[in-house]
Design goal:
This protein has helices spanning about 35, 40-50, 70-90, 95-100, and strands at about 5-10, 15-20, 25-30, 30, 60-65. α2 (about 40-50) runs parallel beside α3. The protein has one domain (about 5-100): Ribosomal Protein S5, domain 2 (2-Layer Sandwich). The protein is elongated. A hairpin with a 2-residue loop joins β3 (about 25-30) and β4. The chain is built from four helices and five strands. The model has no long low-confidence stretch (mean pLDDT about 95). Strands 1-2-5-3-4 form a five-stranded mixed sheet. By secondary structure, the chain is an alpha+beta fold.
Length: about 130
């Protein structure tokens, strides 16, 4: 099997995933998953699509990650892994779609507007 690649984005994070047959090793920016994401919750988020399809031990995954914070990064990796698994076998799509892994979450930070302290916040109103 050749290397399958896919891209996932969330907020400001971009994840490029390279997936090939192997033993279940996940490497992010040349570091092991548990070293890059020490939090077990974020490790769980990354592995969700693999666990849903029971293929955790079948693929080696290499990820290039940049931008965003750790939560956005973990969700970007999840989307990229989901897209790679769908490329391998299109029949994987319905169970992954049912869990909500296929949908790209387009929410991002709203830009700051001129003459305001933040995007929607206004300065304190003074009547006199």
């Amino acid at each position: 099997m050749e290397i399958i690649n896919a891209i996932g984005r969330r907020k400001a994070a971009v994840a490029r995933v390279y997936l090939n047959e192997g033993t279940g090793k996940i490497t992010i920016n040349k570091r092991a998953l548990d070293k890059y994401f020490p939090s077990s919750i974020l490790q769980y988020v990354v592995k969700q699509p693999l666990q849903k399809l029971n293929v955790t031990e079948q693929y080696d995954i290499r990820v290039n990650l940049n931008g965003g914070g750790f939560k956005g990064q973990s969700e970007a990796v999840r989307l990229a892994i989901t897209r790679a698994l769908i490329k391998i076998n299109p029949e994987n799509k319905p169970p992954l779609r049912a869990e909500g892994f296929v949908t790209r979450d387009a929410r991002s930070v709203e830009r700051k507007k001129p003459g305001r302290p933040k995007a929607r916040k206004r300065f304190q109103f003074s009547k006199r």
